[in-house]
Amino acid sequence: AGESGELVVAALFHDIGDVCAPENHSAVAADILAPYVGEGTEWVIRHHGLFQGYYYFHHLGGDRDARDRHAESPHYDDCVRFCAEYDQNCFDPDYDTLPLEEFLPIVREVVERPSRFADDDSRFS
Predict the structure, then answer these.
(1) pLDDT of residue 111
(2) Which of 70, 4, 7 is nearest to 33 (CA)?
(3) Longest alpha-carbon distance in the chain
(4) How many percent of the chain have pLDDT more than 70?
């Protein structure tokens, strides 16, 4: 849909943390992908679990508008859009998708970039 490579990678891998940390999967995914994506995309990945709750929290007795506590973030609208366009549809088994092979060149281009933290040793101290 004409999206940036890093947004494509975010859409493909935003739930990568689900296997090992279902309660905190958004943060795990953000930490894994952070070196390869910009700050805004990292924020979207980190918060998508809360924002995705808009679609189901109220069915579980939660607050579907919990995402609104981040309404002042410059990335709020991007995260709302990401969940609506690239996360919510993942639950539809009939959603029409391209084969994963179609995305390999984009994934390679993104993850083969130098890390945006390459010169920041403070992240590891």
Answers:
(1) 94
(2) 7
(3) 46
(4) 94
Closest CA to 12 of 36, 80, 65: 36
DSSP 95: -
Cα 100 vs. chain centroid, distance in angstroms? Answer: 17
Has residue 119 got a pLDDT over 60? yes
Neighbouring CB atoms inside 10 A of 74's CB total 9
123 has pLDDT over 60: no
State how far the Cα of 80 lies from the Cα of 98, in Å rounded to an integer.
23
Tell me the C-alpha distance between 92 and 19, whole Å.
20
Q: Among all chains, which residue has been given the structure tokens 């975010």?
A: 10
